[in-house]
């Protein structure tokens, strides 16, 4: 039991004891008679279900203008890097084949110079590829974070306006009890997203 529950239990016990002592000093009221329901009528439950909404983030990425724009930006940047990498790779392959075709005619010093130049170009190529991958991961992270923040804000506004106790990502739902009313609010949240 956590600390707050222990304190609350102790306070309730103290209150119950005080009320019991005071009750002994007061005249006893008449015992109330139980009220019975008419035959065949059961007690109506007045407890309202808790409203929880969920959003499908994959759907938002695929169907919202913001998601589509982010996917397009990533695709365009990826294609740009792929084409640049392909051009650099062809240059390296040409440089290597030229060196291989001339290697027997070169002096040991020339051979060493050409091999070092090729190795330098290979290292530069590898660094470029690693830099491109790093840039793509960074861009993807920034676009994802921006989209998630927009979805969180739109979901909060929609949830407050429509009496939801919570709006969560669809993937986070494992179980919902009987007193929970659940609704897919993806379409409503998409409508509330700011335009890119």
Automatic annotation (TrEMBL):
Residues 1-23 form the signal peptide. Belongs to the Skp family. It comes from the Bacteria. It comes from Geobacter pickeringii. Transmembrane segments: none annotated. GO terms for biological process: protein stabilization. Residues 115-149 form a coiled coil. GO terms for molecular function: unfolded protein binding. The keyword Mitochondrion does not apply. Keywords: Coiled coil, Signal. This is Molecular chaperone Skp. The keyword Coiled coil applies. It holds the Pfam family OmpH. One of its GO terms (cellular component) is cytosol.
């Amino acid at each position: 039991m956590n600390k707050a529950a222990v304190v609350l239990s102790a306070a309730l016990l103290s209150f119950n004891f005080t009320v019991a002592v005071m009750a002994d000093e007061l005249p006893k009221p008449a015992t109330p008679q139980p009220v019975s329901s008419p035959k065949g009528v059961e007690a109506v439950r007045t407890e309202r279900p808790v409203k929880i909404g969920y959003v499908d983030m994959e759907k938002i990425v695929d169907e919202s203008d913001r998601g589509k724009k982010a996917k397009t930006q990533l695709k365009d940047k990826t294609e740009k890097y792929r084409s640049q990498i392909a051009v650099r790779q062809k240059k390296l392959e040409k440089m290597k084949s030229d060196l291989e075709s001339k290697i027997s005619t070169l002096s040991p010093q020339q051979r060493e110079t050409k091999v070092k130049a090729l190795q330098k170009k290979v290292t530069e190529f590898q660094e470029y590829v690693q830099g491109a991958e790093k840039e793509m991961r960074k861009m993807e992270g920034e676009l994802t974070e921006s989209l998630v923040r927009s979805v969180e804000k739109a979901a909060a506004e929609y949830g407050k306006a429509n009496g939801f106790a919570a709006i969560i990502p669809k993937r986070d739902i494992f179980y919902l009890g009987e007193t929970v009313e659940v609704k897919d609010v993806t379409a409503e949240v998409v409508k509330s997203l700011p335009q890119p």
